[in-house]
Amino acid sequence: MTAMTDTVARRPSSRRRQIDGWRWSGRIFLVFMLLYTALPMVWMLITSIKSGFAAMQFPPQWWPDQPTLASYEKLLDPQNSVGQDFLHFFWNSLFVSTTTTILSVIVAVPAAYAFSRFTFPGRNFLFFAVLLRNMFPAVIFLVPLFILMRAIGLVNTHGSLVLTYLTFGLPLAIWLLKGFYDNIPVQLEQAARIDGATRFQAFVLIVMPLSTPGIIATAIYSFIGAWNEYIYAYTFLSKNEQLTLPVGIQRFFSENTTDFPGLMAASFMMSVPVVVLFLLLQRYFVRALTEGAVKH
Amino acid sequence: MTSHSLGSAVLCGAVSTALSVSLISTSALAAPVDLSKWSPEYVRSIAGTQDFDTAADCAKVTPLDYKGRLTFWYQGVFEGDPDMLREYYKDFFATFRKTYPNIKLEDQALTYNDLLDKFRTALLGNAAPMAIRLQILGGTEFAAKGYLRPLKPEDLGYSTSDFWPGAMKAVTWEGVTYGVPTNNETMAFIWNADIFKRAGLDPEKAPATWDDVVKYSKQIHDKLGIAGYGLVARKNAGNTPYRFMPQLWAYGGGVFDEASANPTYKKILLNSPQSKAALQASYDMYVRDKSVPVSALTNQQADNQPLFLAGQVAMMVSHPSDYTVMLDLQKKTTGADTAKAQTVIDNMRYGLIPAGPDGKRAVVFGGSNIHILKPEYVEGGKVDEPAAKALGCMWASPEWSLKLAYAGSNPGNLNGFKTKWMKERLSSIKFLDVTTSMLPYGIPFPALPQSPEIMNIIVPDMLQNALTGAMTIDQAAEDAAKKVKNLTEGGL
């Protein structure tokens, strides 16, 4: 009886140990993943506050002997040619990314709603046709798009980038939003219509507020895509005053040498808007990505 | 005619002759640079012996009040380059705008590895700039495809004899000249004296042959556990052929017969026993001895430089600018780093590029050229030729071809060696003697349109195939030779 009592008494603690083991494995795995993703960022930050010589030392200085903000000062100083260029590139990236984001939302919202709610001839074909472009690597469209942009006079304009980014970003944006609309019960709109609302009013007053997370996710997706894009910006723009950040930071590479602290400081500053945006709005982004996965 | 009138006439004649002579640029009167006498002593003897008036010389090509517009691309200098060089580039464009205030110049700097690809794409869309400064390897490709208009030194107010014959060969296609050299250089062999000493080698003596490089590299690696030679084998990066071709030529090999006195570029030598011996040397260092950086397959010089400065690579082939870069880095250090940087500087040594087994020494004759495009490939369909010539004249002038090559190259215009800035440069840039001494050993890349593909893709591919073990040395060399054959016959 005593032995049995012991067994009964031990059972919960052994189960707890077992559960704790899994939990700890999970935690260790998550810490490992955190280090895997965060360490490069930390190293980037540390390198950005080293001198050029210290950045080349081996074994590396895990924390610089003489930390310096010289690279940041250079980048943010509008009196300095490097700073002038960097701030210019930053503004160009912001302009292109914001414009792309706004246009992407304006086009994707009604398009996704139409695919979700209306039945029309060729609906399925069109829906998958939207995705056709995403089935090919972006680089194969490089030269044809360049020639097209040249023909319509958009080479060396930010318009060429906005148009291209929309072409690439819209299919996924429409897919994301359609998943959202599919999960909003159509009965809500029907109720609004019974109460006298027009279809447009039902869309604006009922559907749009409910799909806000999806719209925000679409906006983040468009913004990040445009902010980080390199190859089209590099091909379409050849005037210094129009370059965007991903192309502009190439200036830290030379034929035989690289300015590592400058490059890391510029990369860090380039990642700040995206990281901040993502941190603020990440719950919407994750929700939008999983929303279409389960039908209610 | 009276004696008075005769005297007056003689006097007038003398005065007008003197005036005319004073108005003619001094370059027209001075003796040309004698390449047959080329040596460090000769270079020193001519430095600072002549003054040039760039604006006056270029005014004869394009009037200084000319009104026009010019779009221009070039391989720029950026944040990692020596401060002094960046200042000179800034000064150049400021001076051009001041000298030609009515020419609207739209200049765009591009990085070394991107210039050719970006230019190719722009040409496909007829959106090229009116003028471009390309690395020496690029000119023939674009001339052969018909993108460039003929341009010779005489069009810019200079004489062909003012430039290295090898440089002129690189801008000539089927007997027509399509560009003007702006700068030409040869590299040197750099080593760390302290590492040599610790590895039991003579710290003041460079390896005499490439076989010695293999031997030294192994000794350094075995004794100190660091990389001996800074091998680079990255694809599609100009750095690789600049470092492997001297080795290939020294062993008596080549892609074609480009290392001979009168190359015909007809016979492929990549699969010759000599070329295979050169490839074997790289194989021995990378595979057998593991005495070079393990990242050599993706390394370019910008990756080797930090390793060298950190004391992790003992030897490398590079420009004199590496020394200037190091001085710049030291200037920006503080605390204990300053002394560490000084130690690296004190241990830097420059020597001639090693020779082959039979004493043959070779180096790539590098540089850049200015070209003018045909209007049909240019954005807007128009080329402002006088504006393009004005810029070409200034860049290729003795003054600016020296200043814009101050730290890493040499003036393309040989008269640049006579300027006061050359004299200043000889005293301020250590080891410049070594790299200028290598110039007569310079071999230009084959003047063929296929050269960029051969040098940037096929040759590095051959190296990678052998070093990764994907192919044997024989197979890699035969494969590369076959690819060159297919390419030159219009296939691939």
Automatic annotation (TrEMBL), chain A:
Domain ABC transmembrane type-1 residues, every copy: 90-281
Keywords: Cell membrane, Membrane, Transmembrane, Transmembrane helix, Transport
Entry's transmembrane regions: 24-46, 89-113, 125-149, 161-181, 202-224, 260-281
Domain of life per record: Bacteria
Record's subcellular location: Cell membrane
Membrane topology: Multi-pass membrane protein
Tagged with keyword Acyltransferase: no
Homology family: Belongs to the binding-protein-dependent transport system permease family.
Name by which UniProt lists this protein: Carbohydrate ABC transporter permease
Organism annotation: Rhizobium oryzicola
UniProtKB/TrEMBL annotation, chain B:
Residues of the signal peptide: 1-30
Record keywords: Periplasm, Signal, Transport
Pfam families: SBP_bac_1
Chain segments annotated as transmembrane: none
Family membership: Belongs to the bacterial solute-binding protein 1 family.
CDD domains according to UniProt: PBP2_TMBP_like
Protein name: Sugar ABC transporter substrate-binding protein
